[in-house]
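hi!! sorry for the late reply, been swamped w classes. u asked for the two structures so here they r. pasted raw, havent cleaned anything up. first the sequence of the first protein and right below it the tokens
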Amino acid sequence: MRAAVVAPTERKLIQIIATRTPGPPALVTDSKERTQRVRAALANQNFAIPHGRIDVAVPDGSLGHDLAVALAILLSDRSHKHLRRHGWIAWGALGLNGSITRGEGPYVGGLHSGPSVGRIWRPDDRLPGPEDDAVISLIDDIEEFWQAWDVITKLVDIEQAIFEEEPRMHT
């Protein structure tokens, strides 16, 4: 199972991709320190790391990618398949207790240093570029990891309510 969460850098948006495969339990990121931070933050917020081996592709060592890494890990679990979407976006540094603090902005497109979590609605098939008229919903001032996860689940609930076909009246 693969899951991706977008994170901003100073120059562009990048994808943090978590790939879960069967096998002995293992969590592998770009550094031992990030792996320990993310593992501790999830555990201290009462989240379980999915079973199997999880490899997370993190393009650089920015602490601001921690939140995106943690969310991608949880989204890689098959029990969260209904939550996987193109366009999740998140940034913020994780504390060992699951608290979230600002990233190392400034970020592309005038995005502030966060922490934030949300969804890129348009374009819906790729990362937005400078020429795109992107539509993004962001929730700011997330203080704890559980709040970030709650944003993901609530945005899916809202999407399902909006795009659910209305019942037809039979006459």
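now the second protein. again sequence first, tokens right under
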Amino acid sequence: MLAPDSRLPRSIAALPPLLALAIACSPDAKPAAAAAGAAQAASPQEQPSLPTPVPAAQPAAATAPEPTPVAIDNLVATDGPGLLELIRKGPHRAALVNVWASWCGNCKREMPIVLRVAEAMAEHGIGLYLVSADTPEKRADASAFLAEHGGGHSGYVVAGRLGPFKRALHPTWKGSIPSTFLFDREGRLLHSWLGPVYEHELQPVLQLFAAGQLTP
């Protein structure tokens, strides 16, 4: 006679030995811990959660450079600070700036005087800048005026309002047209003629500059 197995649960061990042994060997009689361990081994191992990737910052768009002014006729638009910057970057020792307008009768009479004096003083490093104070709707008139009276020179036209342009060139200039200004190569005002100017008024001042006797 077989002795009951002491490792069997009491409920099975109490049965007749052969019957207890058959039940113990049955697949359904495995201990719950073994079944749970098998289930745990069969289940896939949980993967640790990964942090959500942060999109890389996009580089800031490059700022497009300011376009260089281009003449669409014989005039280039510029404001006061822009004109002074042109003078500073220019090749001349000084700049004679004449401000005129197509509707101005005195400008028509004065232009040949300014051109003649500027040509005579060019050898001393004095450049000439002819600037129209015409409004945008009168630009065609300004271009035609310069072509007729400008002696082949190209010129400039005031961009924007005239007020800021006047203050940039001369802080107390009321805006009388024509007006003429002399700047050194650093854009500093040396002399001004507010209103029509004549050769005997222009020439002596420019000669003083040529002799090194005119300073800001």
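hope this helps!! also noticed smth abt the second:
The helical segments are 10-13, 17-25, 32-42, 80-89, 105-121, 139-149, 162-169, 199-210.
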